[in-house]
Every structure is written in structure tokens, then in C-alpha cells.
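Hi L., both proteins are below.
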Amino acid sequence: IQYYTIIIFMTDFNSPKAKKSYQRNNDFKQMKQAIWLYFILLIFEGALRKWILPGLSDFLLIVRDPVALFLLFKAFQQKLFHNNLYMFGMTFISVVSFFTAFYYGHGNIVVALYGLRIMLLHFPLIFVIGKVFNRSDVIRLGKIMLWLALPMVVLIGIQFYSPQSAWVNRGLAGNMEGAGFGGANGYFRPPGTFSFTIGNSLFWGLVSAYLFYFWLNVKEVKRGLLILVSASLFGAMSFSISRTLFFEICLSMVFAFVASWNKPKYFSRLLIATAISILVIVLLSEFSVFHTGIETFFARFSEAGDNEGGLKGTLGDRFLGGMISAVSNSAHLSFWGKGLGMGTNAGAKMMTGSAGFLISEGEWGRLIGETGLLLGLGAILIRTFLSVNLLRKSYYYLSKGEPLPWILLSFGSVIILQGQWAQPTSLGFSVLTGGLIMASLKNEKKQNI
């Protein structure tokens, strides 16, 4: 006590060094609070737009942008982007694309600004979250996701069985036609608290990744919670009628088995988790409330598979096919593309009066269609290199006995690589997950991501 008392009295709190240290700690505290606000708005942005403040629905579409601006301002103050080639490359592409959209593309400056915010405002947050958050924050957010999963499955279950005219299914700006999307057997895909059904699928995809991680590390959460969330995930998969969610769960399972391959304790825990999950599925399938959802899910899977040529066609069209066609379809485009922001739903609405896909529903097709083959491929390569680098580092940490970044990458790899960033919720989950993966890679003293 005497030692620390002497140190305290000897410290000159008015010195420039002490002031700078205090200011840096205060800035990081504010930035961490802003990241949590970004997360909260991501989860409940749709609820604000549909139920709480429907009259401000259009404005709330960019409700996370001021938070992103604040984080970028503080990040530049603290020089968090030093020697970041990803940032430099994406900033160059986005700025050039903005001017080419105005002079050679659609010429609508508002639409170009809306497109500019994706790469210039939100993409950098991946690195901000990675710098500001630590492993404890990543775990804390995961636990919150597990607890949120419990009321969320109840909500989407109610939405699944309620007519589209019900308040719980109300669309954006209070639209009485409903927020559900076409499903099967007369049922619609529920959006949960999100604006569109894609948000619900992404939410449960991240829950799935965290769930598999916590099953491998059962000491960090109560086993009862894991069982409840496992049951909720099964219910969410059936109610969501989402093949995307099904593939996300399968991918997380594959990553979890890879993580347990050389770790007997992980493998035994995963087998226990699998056995418990199968038992829960068997029990829940006996209840009519879940049985209807299961039938609807498989009906959707069968119908969509027939239309797309089965599982091979589904995977090919949604993944490899989208990548290949994005390049092959660029032959008819001008060198600078049609203009930044034109491929977003909001941009389409500003230009034509109704939302839609003026360029491409696929992310790679949108990027090349908006900015041209050269700049579009540049943006794609940046996202590809980032995904590969995260994969390499995550696997290294896995080999050292730390599975957290690896399991999170099971969900983050695809949405970072080719997630639909034109959709605000998808963009938000990509940014958040990328940042969480980076933050979980902070066990070593030196990092160059």
C-alpha cells in the first residue's frame, strides 16, 4: 500500500504524458460504448422502423451511420489505421467510384453518396472493433446473443403463425401488407426484429457459431442455457424457412468438428452436444407447433431445389455461380460501371420510385455492375484477401488451442467475402462479425492484420 501511495503522489497528472494517457483511455471507453450501441441498433433497427417509429422508417435506415462516423473520428484521432492496406485500397476505390458515378454513371449524387457510405463509412469499422474490443468483449457479446435467442425464437414463432395483417408482422413504415417473405405451404418467412428476413437468418447464423463455441467451452456458460438455445436454434431453422440459415448451421458444425479433430476434449464435448441436440429435435418434433414448421421448411427446400436443379444447383447459383456470372456479365458494362449506389434497394427507390435490383441480386455482380470490372474486382480482391488472412490467423490460433476466432469465422467468412453489403442489416452483421474475429485474435502481443 505504501509503495502504490508513493507512486500515486509522485505521478504528475498535469504532465502532457499523463493527460495523453488519460485521454486515450477515455476515448477507448467511449468507442467501446459506441460499438455496443452499434450492436444494439443492428439488432433492433427493424423494430424501430416497423413498430416504434414507423414514420421515421426511411431516416432510420441509416441510424447506425452517425455511430460509425463517431467511431471513425475517434479512430483517426488515436491513429488506429496506421499502415492498413485494406483501408487504403478500399478508400481509393470508393472515392474514385463516387466521382465516376457522378460523371460517367447514373449522375445522381445522393445515390452515389448512399453507395459511398458502405465502403468508406462501415467497412473501416471492422478494424476499429478489432482494435477496441478484446476477447472478453467478444465472449460477453456472445453470451448476450444466446440470451437474445430465447425471446427471438418466440417472436418469429408468433410471426410464423400470425397472418401478415397482424401487428407483429407489420412491415416498414407500418405497412399493413406485412414484412414476411414468400416461404412454402402458405407460410411466410418471418423477419424477427429486423427489417427483412435476411436479418433473421444472419442473427441465427451468428448465434449458431457462438453456440458451437460455447459447447466446446462449457465452463463459460451454464449447460442449461446451451440446451435451451440449441432447442431455439432448431425452432428458428424451421420457422425461418431459410436455406441460408441451414447452410450457416452446417458450416459452423463443420468448423467445430475441424476444431475438435486434434483435441479429444473438444471432440467428446461436441459429441455430447450433438447427442443432446438430436434428442431435443426428436422431442420437439412431436409437438405440432414445431412439426408444422419442419414440414414447411422441407417443403421450401424441396420446391427451391427443384427450381434450381437440386442441391448442386442451389450451391452453384448462390455461391460459385454468382461469382462466375458477375465477371462474365460485365462484358456489356462500361469501363466505370453504372454508378455507385445504383445496385442497392435504397438507390433503386431513389431513382425509380420502387425498391428492386437494378443491377444484380448477388454481391459480386453488384460491385462490378456499379463500379466496373477493374474497380469492382479490386473491391472483391480486398474482401477476399481479408477473408483469407483471417482464415490463416484463425487456424493458427486454433492450432494453439484457441478455437474462438476459428468458430466465428465459420459464419463470418462467407458474409465478409460475398455478403450482400447493399442491404444495411447484412452490412452490419459483416462489419460486426469481422471486428469480433479480429478482436478474438488479440492474445499475442504483436498482430498485423
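That was the first. Here is the second:
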Amino acid sequence: RARPTPLPFAAEPPPRAGQALAAADALGLVQPDEPFVLFVATLESRKNHLLVFQAWLELVRRLGAARVPKLLCIGRAGWRAEAALALRERSPELRRKVVMAAGVSDLALAGLTQRCLFGVYNSFHEGWGLPVTESLAAGKPCVVPAHSGLVEAGAPGAVFFPPGDLPALVATLERLVTDPAHLAAA
């Protein structure tokens, strides 16, 4: 089967080479050579950051902090985010591994997407899931639950897991983090 070819996903021409990466680096959220995973979504209960944070904590416990990349969450705090924020606050491991930022420009976000290992996007329901499509358009796999509009937004390149299944999400993330050949194939 032929590999899909990423296409630019924008009404505007893409930025000149290096502009997006420079804008991303200027944020200072991660070091220029530091690996990270990108989760772009308003921090709210519907996006289920809680499940992703639980998975990240389990990865740190299984693999050790040094082997787990940072999780960079881009989006403002929204409705009913208390459970996810409380888990992060109570966990020293998550405070070190989960970085949150809001107000990131489209240019910097494009640079972060170019630099990330892969994306993750989790929600209980979506009509589409634009961050999934943006990740795939940048040539980056995205881990998403197999339901609603996310199936369409992610086909054929997303890495799907059963919705709400923490062990399956952890296994999916662990394989992408620890197996460079699997990540490259994704």
C-alpha cells in the first residue's frame, strides 16, 4: 500500500522554512532538541485530558521519567478542567512531564507540530477534530480514540485506540515512545 503524502492544510501559504520553528523555540516550552508529544485542545472535561494525564503517569511509572517525553498541552483552561488539573498538581511526575500553555500563535503551533514526536487528541465526541488533521497534514501521527468524527479526521493515518480504554492508550503510547521503527512506520 502506498504511503499517504502530507499536504499543507491552510488557506494561507506555509511560512518560510524556519519561521515556524523559530517561533516555537521562542516560546521556551521545551528545549530545541527535547522530544515531546503535542496535545492541542481547550483544557476541559469533554477533551478528557484526565485520561491522557493518567496514561502519562503510568508511562512514567513503567518506563522511568527519563524515557518518557514531555506532554505539551496547548490550549486555554475551559469548563470543568478541575479533575485533570488536580491530578497534575498532586503528582510531581506530571508537573515535570506535562507542560501547559495558552495563547500560542498559529505560527508557533505550526513549529511545535513540525517538531513533536507525534500528537495525541482525546475527547468524548467530536464533529471533526481539527488538531488531528493538522498533525497528519504535518506528517506526524496522532493518537486518537476510534469514535465520532475522529475516525474520519484521522483516517487513514491516525493511530486509534478504543475510547476510554486506559490500558490500550498506555500500550499505544508506550509503543510509539519506545519503538522508533513503529513511530516511523506510523
